[in-house]
Structures are given as C-alpha cells and as structure tokens.
Write a structure and sequence with these properties.
Blueprint (H helix, E strand, L loop, with lengths): L9 E3 L2 H8 L6 H17 L4 E4 L1 H7 L4 H11 L3 E2 L14
Parallel strand pairs: 1-2, 2-3
Helix pairs in contact: 1-2, 1-4
Amino acid sequence: MLIYTTIKPRVYVEATVVSYLVARPSNNPISGSRQRATRRLWQNYADRFEFVISELVRTEIQRGDATAAQQRIETISSLTVLESRPRQMYLYKNF
C-alpha cells in the first residue's frame, strides 16, 4: 500500500514579518496595513506552508525591547531554522 504525504512549500520569514506580527497596532496607515496583512498571512496560511527562518533572523529579533523581543522569540519558537552554510569564495582569472 502506498501512503502519500503532502509536502508543504517553504516560505522564508524575515525579521520584519515577525515584528509586524507581534507589534502593537500602529496608527500609521502604511504600518497598520502591513501589520494586518501579516496577521492574515499567519492566520490563513500557516497550515498551507512551512514557515522557516534563519539563525540571522533569530538573532535579529532578540534585539530591542526585552518584552517585545520575548514575544517575537515565542512566535517563531516552533519554526524550522534553516541550516547556515559558509559562503564559498571563487577567484576568477581573466585569460
């Protein structure tokens, strides 16, 4: 018997998304709109996608106000952290 599993597409979440998600509602029309869109994304699509972050995002969201940072950390606690690989440098010669 074959068993099929569904693999969710991965969506990379950067630090701004996490900040919009947990921030107090903004009075600024642009920021407020981004916050609402981010919350809708999180609520409506979390079951359809695998949200992933990098170690860099985790480091970045720990900065700033301690209470807000704790909220951000709790929000991403269940997300997959992508493996970081060192970049390779290539030297090219012009012949």
